[in-house]
Amino acid sequence: MTQPDTTAAQSNAINYPLLARPHIQLYGTVDEQMYAKFLDGLAAAPTDGPLVVSITTLGGDPEMARAMGDSIRLLREYTGREALFLGKVAVYSAGATFMSAFPADKRFLTKNSRLMIHERLMNSTVQLSGPLNTLSPVLNAKLNEIEDSIRIQDEGFADLVRGTQVTLDELKQRAPHNWYIEASQARDLGLVLDII
């Protein structure tokens, strides 16, 4: 009697026992509430050993994602503590921004998860009203906001691809069209270390 081939369905989870019970588990929209939950989880987590953070999100506020990421960076730089990222099911938009705070070799995805990376979005109306000499500063202020947002976006993109096989130029070409990346492809590109 032949045994069924189960290698395709096997998980690499056994190789990473720390990921079984993340210290901080985030899910839902990346917003101020998630940031508060993240800070509470960080305060309650053990103070030694690797810190495991998991997230499932369809996106949200990129600034809240950057703030959570900065806490991870500061923890790593001030204490030398290892922090591991575990993306579950969906790591879209601001979730990928948060993921970029972790080195590529400290990132993991669960089986059948997806990343989605896109450019920052802006919805804005510029109201021009008043003497002509007062209108140019309004337009310049909006242009400055856009240019600074692009710089922030590019900094995050550079962090996301650092240590991977994806170039910054490639990411910038794909991002305007919502780049969806399956877990196995993310691993093959080096965006994550492995799949569990």
UniProtKB/TrEMBL annotation:
Domain of life: Bacteria
GO molecular function: peptidase activity
Keyword entries, A-Z: Hydrolase, Protease
Keyword Protease among record annotations: yes
GO term, biological process aspect, one: proteolysis
Protein name: ATP-dependent Clp protease proteolytic subunit
